[in-house]
Structures are given as C-alpha cells and as structure tokens.
Amino acid sequence: MPVCATTNCEGNDTRNDQIRANEELLISRILEGEKDLFLELIRPYQRTVYATLISMLGTKEDAEDVTQDVLLKALARLHQFRRESAFGTWLIQIAINEARMRRRKLRRGIMFSLTSGPDDDETYVPKDFADWREIPSEALERSEIREALGKALTLLEEHYRLAFILRDVNGMSITETANVLGITRGAVKTRLRRARLMLRDILSPGLQQGGHVDLTFKEVRKPWE
Amino acid sequence: MGITCEEVWRDISDYVDDELDPKQRTALEEHFAECRHCAAVLEGTCNVIRLYRDERALALPKGFHDRLHKRLDQKFTLGPKERIHTSRRAVLAWALTAAAAVPLGFALFSAKRIILPRLGHESPSGPPDSPPITGLVAVSQDSDDKVFHVPSCPYLHGKPKFLPAAEAVREGYAPCPICIGKHKPEKKG
Question: What is the pTM (predicted TM-score) of this model?
C-alpha cells in the first residue's frame, strides 16, 4: 500500500480497468455519433490537462487557451486513438505537444525538451526538519494557499516540475509518466524524489505557520549539526 | 538504527510510492519510528502530495466550462458534413461573384471609354496628362459637322483635309469627342 493515501501504485487496478472499459465504451459511442458524450469522457481529465499546461506555459490564460484547443483536437482525432495507452495518457501527450508548439510560436522555450535537464542524482538534503502536521483540506479554500502552491511549482526546474505534475497531480503511474516523458522509470523516480522534497522545503515553513508562504529556500540548521 | 538519515532521504520517495522491497521498507519504518526529523520529512512529503492532488489546487479558471461548452457547441452544430456543405456553398458563392464581376468589369471599362472622353471635352482644362496635338489635324471635306479629328480617328468620314490644329480652332472646328480624350490641340498663350 502506498504511504500517502493519495498516491497510486503500479498495478492498482481493478478500478483502473473499470474506468478504461467505461472510457472505451464512451469512445465507441462518440465515434458512432453521440458527440454529447464527449463532455463525459473528458470531465476527469480537464484539470489534469490544465495543470500540465500551466506547468509548461506559466500563465493561466495560455494554459486555458491551449487546454481548450487540446480538448477540441482530441474530439477531432478521436478516431485515431489506438487504445494502446489510457485515454488520459493520450490526452496528456497531445497537451504536451500542443504546449511545445505554442511555446515555439511564442518564441519562448525554443530549447525546450522534455528529456533535457540534468537529473541531479545526488541525495537531496532536506532543509526543514520541523514537524509538519497534516494540513487540513480546508486550507485550500484560501486563495493565498492555492497561489502559493502554484508559485512554488514555478521554482522547480521544468523536468522536475513535469514529472511531479504527471505523477502526483495527474495521478499517472510511474510507468505511464516514463512513457509520456520518454525517459526510464528510474529517471522518473529521481525527478520525483527531488521535486517532492524541494516542494516540501519551499512550502513547509509557511504552511506550518498557517499559510503565509515565503517562497524562498531558507537554510535551516540541521538538527544534528 | 539500521540505516542512516541520508539513506532514508534517498529512498523516501520510493517508500511513498511503495516501490521498495519489503526489507528496505521495514528498515525505513524502523528508522521513522526512532527519528523524529525523518518522520517529519515523510509527513511533509505526504502533505505536499495531498495538497497538490486536491482538485482545488491548480483548479480550472472560473468560466472555463462555459467557454469550453460554447466552443464544443460550435463544433457540434457545425459537424464535418455541414462544414463540407458550407465550404461548397462558399465556393459556389465565390464563383457566382466572379462570374458577375467579369461582365460588370467589361461594362465599366466600356463606359470609361465612352464617358470619360466626353467629360474631358466638357472640361475646360481637360485631362491633365493628355498630350497636346502639335501637328496636323484632319477635317472632313464632305461633311458640315465642323469637327476636327486626329488623322487616325475612325469617325473621320469622307475626304480628309489636313491643317494645323490652331488653324482648325480658329476656323470654328470643334474637337472630336471620341479622339479628344487622347489628344487635345495645344493652346497657345
């Protein structure tokens, strides 16, 4: 069992099989003309596509615009979906390609590559060792907490950020994340480890104190020093 | 403690994902039970994942669904068949416009040839770029129309008589309305 109730494990999977069977049925019906069902098909993935795109494009406006383009493109290309991967994975791949095109068009991130960026294989040393009790979910009702989460992500290098988004926000398995990014499972794990611990260091001082998040790394004296 | 804090940090993410073998897992759990700081790192890591996983974090902007529905509605109401029909209609409309434009253009061209020379005749100054006639003009010896022409004018009937343009004007000849658009006698003084 995963330690955090929110993480998915490899092969967790009766439920996934049910979801996939249901999606395949929906896709068949949509292709036969019941286009209204498309909204039902994409409902679970709208946020994950948006989250992926905001992590790549940086602004809410661009992310929304491209999210809508991606969903419309998915409808137009639904007959090309080969069902070798999950529908959600296929959708995220379209989203990543669209984001790359949009960035090229905007002349931003010309050097962008999903696999670029060195994976720092050294063990990441946490910078904050204070106790951090579980943050109640009501905290997310506060806009400053949501803003802080968004800003904290932007402090990560893109290859860490994207691995974190696909795995921990979108709930993909490590294997699916590796397939989408075109890297090994080992590389995904390395990126995840660093992304998670860095985000914890960025966010924990503020969240411990009730939400005022100072988005800078602070050197905290290690307890054993 | 069987393992060090550094080993825990290296494996903590795999522990969260349940990617460790049972022996490693037990070693980490024993470490967490005794090391408050590593337990805090674990708890914080799980908090981070839990927060980002929540639907309210990185939520879709307000009005997103309305805007998406609007775009989808446009796409649904304008399905592929309709788009093809629309496209054919557009081509047909363009073809008809082009077909109508040809005779219209021809008519305008003809009108210009007929009307503009007359306007030029009525205008005291005439077309500003008309070249003046400096040589001979022709008048008909068989007609009383008192009109002088350039020698090649098709409206010059009968036997021509050639004389200088200024003299033709002095003798009361008026310029031909057809060929006057192109040529006009040079005014002296």
Answer: 0.65
